[in-house]
Structures
1.
Amino acid sequence: MTAPLKAVSFDLWDTIIDDDSDEPKRRAQGLRAKPQQRRHLLYQALNGHRPVTEQQVNAAFDAADAAFQKAWKQDFVTWPVAERLGVALKELGCDLPADELAGLAQALGRMEVELPPDAIDGIGDALDELSGRYKLCIVSDTIVTPADGLRALLDGYGLKKYFSGFAFSDEVGHSKPHPDMFNSVARQLGVEVTDMVHIGDRDNNDIKGAQGLGMKAVLFTAKRGVDRETTSADAICERHADLPAIIDRLAGGG
């Protein structure tokens, strides 16, 4: 007999938050795009000590990003921003005082908090309805913005109150689809991992990761639909207005 669903876990980026919806806001304010601004801040910091070119900084940042992607995809860990900066500095043969490096890492990690992207339409109403029937939690990788910043974003949208558990990869020590991410929130909520259904936009990280533990999983496609044709998801959701009914159907064994 299928275990009853007691909890719902949510991915964050392109499931709750519209990734890069802050970029038009940045352009409207005459600000650089986030990737360019992060590199520019490192360039400025280094030139306070020794001359480097923007081309050198870009090449070092590219190397650090490639190393991060490898660790994320192969080892299922997401390095904190300071560690990524450390890789870039090593590529450049440079160093920064510890306090400056910490300040730079904080500045890079706060960019999405200071000028936030948008929450995806309908998520507030969906969470409000679902929270009356299920325990809710977040299972999210931290790519640049750390866990405290992501909590601040959720609080700013008025959504943090709906969640009773949080698994952020920089706090858990692994990233999706590693089992530790899902097991962490199951422990926080006091449920079996098989009593949960996960919502996310990536088939490998969200759907396969959850299903590998015996969970059900829903592919959310409103902002990212590239996995739609090949997913093994138990259901596909195109908009948050439909999500409560989809979860209730899965809870009923449908």
2.
Amino acid sequence: MKVLVPIDMTAAESAALNDAVARPWPPGAMFCLLHAVAPIYPPLLVPRLFENVETKIRQRLDRSADPLKKAGWNVRTEALEGSPPRTINAFANEWRADLVMISSHDLSPLVRLCLGGTAQSVMRHAPCSVEIVRLRRDGSDRRGGMKILAATDGSEFSAVALRSVAVRPWPEGSKVKVISVPEFVLGKDACCLETHQLKEFRDLGATSIENAKRCIATAEGILTGCSLAVSTELPKYEDRPYQVILHDAEEWQADLIVVGSHGRSGFDRVVMGSVSEAVALHAKCSVEIIREAALTQRES
């Protein structure tokens, strides 16, 4: 398994790096700590200035890599010049990374809307799974066990995400709770419906709930035999799917939300929206969006 951890030298600490150090990983896992240096102008000074900056960056990256090296992991460091999002994604593709762990700086919704951000861009365009890492609520690391909320819609993408959770090692004492949000719920405006319409809506709601139960049962089968303590729940909270996931994660005080990626292009996600992206942007805990390519590569 190859894990890419972008490092922001301007941040006081890296939540992603702290998590990488604290968690168990499959035997033979490899790590790369990458810092992307934004282009320096004027162009005539670029070679000399970048060379000076690169030396200092590599020294800091080497110090940051020490905890992973002491834990016995294979670690490399890279300092590359270029736009951080593009550089991270390009390197992840070239290195054939399985997972990018990137720290969230929790920008305000307005700033995210107007300016975007490195984490958001990586989440949209990376060729592999991406985890947006946020500091744990109590400031502790993950060694005491993790609470993982896995949301499934019964799709092949959710199955890929669940298989990834099932085969990976997790801190001792970790647990996973599987939820499936019914696609259709009877909203607050139901009182405005005619009698025959209300019956149709209730029938749709009942069918949707049964489908969600089947999704949960399938997920239980995938997770059978894994090292995690598994529980399931059909959410009672009614809202848009991403809001339900966020509500359950907050109520359960999850450390990590795991969702599958439906593989839409970045443009499609901007236009149509995405449950996984909405969860990643608004969650108070870490969120991992798992893409099929990463699991396929890991198993090959």
